[in-house]
Amino acid sequence: MILLADAIDNATGYEALRAFRDALTATHDPRTIVLSLLGLAAFILLLGLVARHYTRETVATPASPDYLTLAVDLLGLSEQTRRDLRLIAQRAKLEQPAAMLLSPANLASAAARAFRPHDNPGLFERLEQLSRRLFGQPLPVPPPITPEPTQPTAP
Question: What is the domain partition of the chain in residue ranges?
Fold first, then answer.
């Protein structure tokens, strides 16, 4: 402590440190000592938090399983059917693509959102066969898709 005090006295531009040293050594006020120790503890805590923030490893979130691929594999469908279903799911922007395999209405609705029947007649023929294979009934005609309602405007 004496060496530190001598180093502070000999250095120039350390008036704040010199005042701090004088406050600690001259008065021995318990409040000053406690506040100084609390300030030092807060500074060390802040340094620890900053170090932890910069050295923290980011944990990658596990990828959600591809349920469409799992369902296609489970049902034993062909690779062409997998590509057709993947294309429909992407074009229809489905959040849960495997849901279109739950019923013929879901399959028809997803296909109608992705394509019009005259856009790709071969695809709709394959979907008709898939519907008969999975559900034992033909692909129903989906209701027309209406745009999302907008908020009414004030007159």
Answer: 2-54, 67-135
